[in-house]
Amino acid sequence: MSNVSVFADIPAGSAVLDLGCGDGTDSLIAAGKTGPDGRVYGVDFSQAMLSHSRAGATELGAINAEFREATGQEIPFDNDTFDVAKEVFRVLKPGGRLYLADIVVHKQVTDGAKEDVDLWTA
Ligand SMILES: C[S@@+](CC[C@H](N)C(=O)[O-])C[C@H]1O[C@@H](n2cnc3c(N)ncnc32)[C@H](O)[C@@H]1O
Questions:
Q1: CA of 39 to the centre of ligand 1 (A)
Q2: Domain holding 68: CATH number?
Q3: For atom 1 of ligand 1, which residue has the closest CA?
Q4: Residue minimizing CA distance to atom 26 of ligand 1
Q5: Atom of ligand 1 nearest to the CA of 26
Q6: 45 burial level (CB within 10 Å; 0-12, 13-18, 19+)
Q7: Model confidence, pTM
């Protein structure tokens, strides 16, 4: 399990980007930390993962969490948008925090594998 949001310093009111949000666990932990004055945007290229994320947010009543389909190569936000992000300085404000957690594979990942929730979450 690599839920960096458990350990991340996320001040109340932060705008948080969770890039590769998976089933949304980290996003929802972050949503609890940033609270009602903050907002978390989870981004993933897998519709299956986004469905899990949105269902979790609904179940928990996390109205400050929103999930969008996109790739890490084209993040759908303006420059200098976030206080806390898991990747890419372009969208971070000066002084923003960067937390990284990733899976490394050494061969091509099939579309079927990308959509298999059990392969990407612990
Ligand atoms: C290990 S999971 C993230 C788990 C997440 N931290 C949680 O709390 O459940 C990694 C996610 O990154 C997504 N992902 C991997 N490469 C991506 C890319 N280039 N663009 C968008 N999403 C990507 C995968 O679809 C997967 O859902």
A1: 19
A2: 3.40.50.150
A3: 120
A4: 22
A5: 8
A6: middle
A7: 0.76
